[in-house]
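[Discussion] Sanity-checking designs against the backbone

I'm trying to build intuition for which residues belong where. Below is a structure token string of 71 positions. I'd appreciate it if someone posts a full sequence so I can compare it with mine line by line.
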């Protein structure tokens, strides 16, 4: 699984809704402390759809996006 980490809780939830609207299986989780950044909420999804999720990040350009991390 892969985490999409954001600095903004509202942007994390907005991105979660975007993935759901594209029928990409995902959920929200507490951002692991080991990552040490973010708002405390991340979006987790299967690594098999990472390329599609990267495309959606590029097109939506969330300003608070930190990066992708392996769960």
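Best answer:
Here's mine. Compare freely.
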């Amino acid at each position: 699984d892969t985490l999409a980490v954001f600095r903004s809780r509202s942007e994390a939830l907005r991105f979660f809704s975007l993935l759901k609207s594209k029928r990409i299986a995902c959920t929200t989780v507490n951002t692991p402390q080991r990552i040490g950044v973010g708002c405390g909420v991340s979006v987790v999804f299967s690594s098999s759809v990472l390329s599609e999720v990267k495309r959606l990040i590029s097109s939506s350009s969330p300003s608070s996006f930190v990066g992708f991390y392996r769960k």
